[in-house]
Amino acid sequence: MNKLSYVIPRFQAYGCIKNLVFFEPFLILYLRENGLSFLQIGILIALRELTTNVVEIPTGIIADVMGRRKAMVSAFVSYILSFLLFYFFSEILMLACAMLAFGIGEAFRSGTHKAMVMEYMDLKGKGKSDVTKVFSQIRAWSQIGAAISTLLAAGLVFVSGLYKTVFLASVFPYVIGALLVLSYPRELDGKLSIKKDIKSVWRFVLESFKHIIGKIQLRRILLNSALDKGLYKALKDYLQPVVAAGALLFLPFFTKFMPQIDEKQVIAISIAMVYSGVYVLNSVAAMQSVRLEVWLKGEHRALNLLFLIYLLVMLLAFVGLVCRLWWLTILSFIVLGGTQNARRPMLMSCLAKYMQPQERATVMSVETQAQTLMTMLFAPVLGLAADVFGLQAVFIISFFVFALIGYTLRIRQEHCVEESSFR
Q1: Which residues lie closer than 8 Å to 420 by C-beta, 6 or more apart?
Q2: pLDDT bracket for residue 422 (50, 70, 90)
Q3: How far apart are CA 139 and CA 137, in angstroms?
Q4: Which of 85, 114, 154, 380 satisfies CB 3.0 to 4.6 Å to 272 for a cystine?
Q5: Radius of gyration of the chain (CA)
Q6: What does pTM read for this prediction?
Q7: By three-state DSSP, how is residue 269 classified?
Q8: Which of 80, 141, 151 is nearest to 109 (CA)?
Q9: Is residue 383 a contact partner of residue 39, using CB atoms and an 8 Å limit?
Q10: Would you list the domain boundaries of the chain?
Q11: Main-chain dihedrals φ then ψ at residue 243, nearest 5 degrees
Q12: Which pLDDT tens digit goes with each residue over 70-102?
């Protein structure tokens, strides 16, 4: 049997497993329960992103030089350490250490796996038309994994009455994830022909950066992708306090039929319902990315339409919070997530057209580094705004930031012409 057989199903399984992070729908609520302000939470998130930012490019280089599978296993080990720190400790210093470990895991994982997917596409002789399709399939499965994760996490919180149990539970799927990555064919490590001495590695870094900086199209797409994911990453977790506030309105209804139910259990049920809906829609949106691109006759048209939808839903979320229409804000979050997941495969397809095969992990690490820089800058600002002015300030600030910066980075037709190694 060909070593590259059944690789796509393994990519899809990876997408599902990596999103079995049971704590994600409850992270903000857990930190708030431990007495942290939104500003402190924003600083912790910024610390996580700063860690990823600092070690992102070195880990990308390690992946290109030493092997991508080893880099991926290192990511899972770092994640597991983070989960254990979150579970056993609640002091802010130890929470910061947990964020550091998580940030290192993100740096090892993000660009590396995308580079492995692109390596597979080259080895199989796939054309550029297949790039968006493959990435959309993997992203769809990742959102299915997130939906499953939410339901299981809500069940754990409902039964245990503790938010921290979800951190311990997250260890088990990540052990499986590490074993899955080890099962990938060696060919996906790429050509490890670069000498492993410092001088050769440094030369490799300079050549990669020269190529990245020299391509205006690549720079624009990298920054567009970074703004897209970076702002969404800083914004998305504010759904948790919104759902919690809305859930408490239904507390009398639940206690009428289940007198022993408490606030935390009602919130767990509400989180399960809302987040599973979010992730299912995200999965559908990712799968429809190719169809949307074809329907609008080009990636640039599809990306720019989705950009306008981004702006609209941010305004709707702001209106919902000002008028205390929780359902409108929650609906806006759902559409926001779907929009982001429809855009992501298209952006990956655009990026693929300007990357040399041997530097993919490095280029994708630069993309992730730019994205983490965006999140690192936005997270404390949005946290401070939420503390001082309320959650509605988060969305009006995000609207103006995305409108002003996003417009200057909009994708044009000439940025999506074929200029890739996929032939």
Answers
A1: 128, 352, 353, 354, 355
A2: very low
A3: 5
A4: 154
A5: 21
A6: 0.78
A7: helix
A8: 80
A9: yes
A10: 7-184+214-415
A11: -65, -40
A12: 888 989 999 999 999 999 999 999 999 999 999
**What would the 3-class secondary structure string for 53-122 be?**
HHHHHHHHHHHHHHCHHHHHHHHHHHHHHHHHHHHHCCCHHHHHHHHHHHHHHHHHHHHHHHHHHHHHHH
H/E segment holding residue 203: helix 198-214
In the predicted structure, residue 223 carries a pLDDT above the cut 50: yes
Place of tokens 């942290």: 36
Q: Which of 3-7, 264-268, 315-319 has the highest mean pLDDT?
A: 315-319
CA 254 vs CA 145, 273, 325: distances in Å: 28, 15, 20
**186 Cβ partners below 8 Å, 6+ apart?**
3, 69
Q: For position 126, what pLDDT does the model report?
A: 64
Token code pair at residue 197: 């001495």
Geometric angle at alpha carbon 233, from 230 and 235, rounded to 5°: 110
Question: 7-184+214-415, superfamily in CATH?
Answer: MFS general substrate transporter like domains (1.20.1250.20)
Q: How many CA atoms lie within 13 A of 218 on its CB side?
A: 20
Rounded distance between C-alpha atoms, residue 29 and residue 395, angstroms: 19
Q: Is the dihedral of CA 128, 133, 136, 142 positive or negative?
A: negative
pLDDT in tens, 224-242: 777 888 888 888 889 899 8
Residues 6+ apart with CB under 8 A from 229: 340, 344, 371, 374
Distance CA 384, CA 377 (A): 12
Task: Give Cβ neighbours of residue 5 (< 8 Å, ≥ 6 apart).
Answer: none
* Site of tokens 């991926």: 72
**C-alpha dihedral sign at 302, 307, 312, 316:** positive
